[in-house]
Design brief:
heterodimer; A: Rossmann fold; 8-stranded mixed beta sheet; 4-stranded antiparallel beta sheet; B: Rossmann fold; 2 domains
Chain lengths: 322, 354
């Protein structure tokens, strides 16, 4: 990839946990040696089941969590070990929108104050200029400029998500982590937000890391999709290819489980059943994280961790795919 | 008509709140046949859960059924308003025998539905012991059998464990085992897979489908996920703002939608052209979900409908039938009636002006 906005290499993030009140210390590998690249103006969708580490990956990339090892190159600059102060110029260019539009807005701020806050922190413009920009941003996200004096409780879920987007846009970022931005919304509103995000991307050439569990929507918005399982990226590739012709056994099972709004196709769909339950993230197997549930797993899979490699135009981490 | 297990007519439910009366359900009629899976599709606040809960007599204390009739297996489940105390008590007793026995329910959140301080076995046998004449030992055996049916391994050991020892998907399967333990005729599933991952969702849907096909259990599946509706349901009722806007077989709803809301809902989700496999662009429904406190007297969808006429806000449209199974209520299919109404309205206004 030429001049990617984001290049993550071998990123690792672990959390220490104690199991139970008197339990032993354990280590959860939330992000386990993940490498990925994101081009300018591209959307990379991240899918996987709850607890697979998609949100942790997004947050570690933004350095909300301090990474344990690996490197994060943002626009060619290594930001992995920068201090909070040194991060400031980069923070401005990377933003986040959150899942819960009810929890991510401060109820004591007016909409205008909230959207202007990031600009205030970065000393951008005079108060009047900021107010002008707030109005323009509100228009961009499909709200009325006179909404800026209202409080969050006066808005519906979809409108609040628009406010969150306007706030993220206020510093003109190059990269946004969208962490489940539509899963708390009604179906008819989800489409509004997805279209808005696409529109903004087309105008401003922003790159998105789009985290969601709704694979149908991820397929719609993403150029490429990355599939995560227990902290590892198991397959990355073109969105339609991943969904129509998955290579990794886990991707196959995941995609086969997605119900599509099309009764005729649904009658033909067969779900590839995964034996057992999702294993505890506390004790990762030495080999492939999926080997415990994979029907094709061999001795090699259980002992040796497969690396991501190129297979017919995409990257897969599986010993068996050739 | 003989095989209609549940027949609901003109059901209306209101909730008294601090801000006023919320008309959550405004006259819905539907039926469930034996062994059929009926989907209730709709967004939050559409009245889909309330309609189903009313059938079980399980409304919050500020809610009342203001009109309608609910007949289950020939019995009327709603009491007339002027019933005596004695009638009320006997009716409550009858409902209690019905709940968990002939009609059971699965809820959305498997993490909060099980009692954390009781073993799975205790919770699983509670219903069996309450509704059937059997010993504890028999009930325990039946419980083990139920766990096996929902594909939980090592059921003998699992019966003695507590909910925290199970994952979310397993808890939901245990809840399903509880729901099926008394061989209900009707299962009401209120968003049973919303909190679960897709792979687990597939297992749960499979269990429900199998039960309906093999034992002839009827199911009302409440969901906002059109994929779930398409994969599971025989018939679908699309709810919006407390009305059933359209009802039909899954194929009729997905391939020949008649109501503008159904059309809008379907174009809000990402679908593929079946021949070219091309993405169809998303066309969202403009506006925001209805405010149930301030509803107009007409079609609830009127304020967001791209084709709304003046009459839509004030009058509920009549039901138009498109096939034996397919109904929709929209003024665009009864324009002649609409015109008559408008004329009448104008006449009345004219008289008032004089």
């Amino acid at each position: 990839m030429n001049n990617p906005i984001l290049c993550v290499k071998d990123l690792e993030k672990t959390f220490q946990v104690r199991t139970g009140m008197f339990g032993k210390q354990g280590i959860i590998h939330a992000v386990n040696h993940v490498s990925l690249e994101l081009a300018r103006g591209e959307t990379l969708g991240l899918v996987g089941e709850s607890g697979c580490g998609k949100s942790s990956l997004g947050r570690t990339i933004l350095k909300v969590y301090e990474p344990d090892s690996g490197t994060i190159l943002f626009d060619g600059n290594d930001i992995t070990t920068l201090s909070r102060e040194q991060m400031r110029p980069y923070r401005k260019r990377m933003q986040m929108i959150f899942q819960d539009p009810y929890a991510s807005l401060n109820p004591r701020f007016t909409i205008g104050e909230m959207i202007a806050e990031p600009m205030k922190i970065y000393n951008i413009g005079s108060a009047d200029e900021r107010a002008e920009r707030v109005k323009a941003l509100l228009k961009t996200v499909g709200l009325r400029p006179d909404h800026s004096t209202r409080y969050p409780h006066e808005f519906s879920g979809g409108q609040r998500q628009r406010i969150g987007i306007a706030r993220a846009l206020s510093l003109d970022p190059d990269f946004m982590v969208c962490d489940e931005p539509i899963s708390a919304l009604d179906v008819s509103i989800q489409a509004q937000i997805v279209n808005l995000l696409e529109e903004i991307q087309a105008k401003r050439n922003i790159s998105y890391l789009f985290i969601a569990h709704d694979i149908t929507m991820v397929q719609h918005i993403s150029h490429r999709i990355g599939v995560m399982y227990m902290g590892s990226l198991v397959e990355v590739g073109n969105a339609d290819e991943i969904c129509n012709d998955p290579l990794h056994p886990y991707t196959k099972a995941l995609i086969s489980a997605v119900p599509r709004p099309d009764p005729r196709k649904e009658r033909e769909r067969t779900v590839l059943k995964l034996p057992g339950e999702t294993p505890s993230p506390l004790n990762l197997p030495a080999g492939c994280p999926f080997s415990l549930r994979c029907r094709y797993a061999s001795k090699r899979c259980r002992e040796e961790m497969p690396q991501l490699r190129q297979v017919s135009g995409r990257t897969v981490a599986c010993h068996l795919v050739s | 008509m003989a095989d209609r297990l549940l027949e609901v007519k003109d059901l209306a439910v209101e909730f008294r709140t601090g801000e006023g009366i919320v008309k959550a359900v405004r006259g819905v009629s539907f039926h469930v046949e034996k062994g059929e899976i009926l989907g209730f599709a709709g967004e939050s606040g559409s009245g889909k859960s309330v309609s189903a809960m009313a059938c079980l007599g399980l409304l919050a204390s500020n809610g009342t059924v203001t009109s309608g009739s609910i007949r289950f297996a020939g019995k009327e489940l709603l009491l007339p308003k002027d019933s005596t105390r004695d009638q009320l008590r006997r009716h409550e007793e009858m409902l209690r025998r019905l709940r968990g026995n002939e009609i059971s329910m699965i809820f959305q959140d498997p993490m909060t539905y099980l009692n954390p301080v009781l073993t799975i076995g205790t919770q699983l046998t509670e219903g069996i012991l309450a509704h059937t004449q059997c010993s504890r030992r028999e009930a325990w055996k039946k419980g083990i059998e139920m766990l096996r049916q929902v594909e939980i391994s090592d059921p003998e050991k699992r019966m003695r464990q507590y909910p925290y020892e199970f994952s979310g998907g397993m808890r939901q399967r245990i809840i399903i085992a509880i729901a099926f333990s008394c061989d209900p005729q009707l299962l009401i599933a209120d968003e049973p897979t919303t909190a679960l991952d897709v792979t687990v969702q597939a297992q749960i849907l499979d269990l429900i489908r199998k039960r309906a096909r093999e034992k002839g259990t009827s199911v009302i599946m409440i969901t906002h996920d059109l994929g779930v509706v398409a994969s599971l349901c025989d018939r679908v009722a699309v709810l919006y703002g407390g009305r059933i806007e359209e009802a039909g077989t899954a194929d009729e709803i997905f391939y020949e939608p008649r109501h503008p809301y159904t059309e809008g809902l379907l174009s809000s989700v990402s679908r593929r052209n079946s021949e070219t496999m091309d993405k169809t662009p998303l066309t969202p429904i403009p506006g925001t979900p209805p405010d149930l406190l301030h509803m107009n007297s007409g079609c609830p969808f009127a304020s967001r409908c791209p084709e709304a006429m003046r009459i839509c806000k004030d009058y509920l449209p009549a039901i138009s039938s498109f096939s034996r199974t397919h109904d929709a209520e929209c003024w665009r299919y009864c324009r002649a009636q609409a015109q008559q109404l408008i004329l009448k309205q104008m006449e009345e206004r004219g008289e008032r002006n004089e």
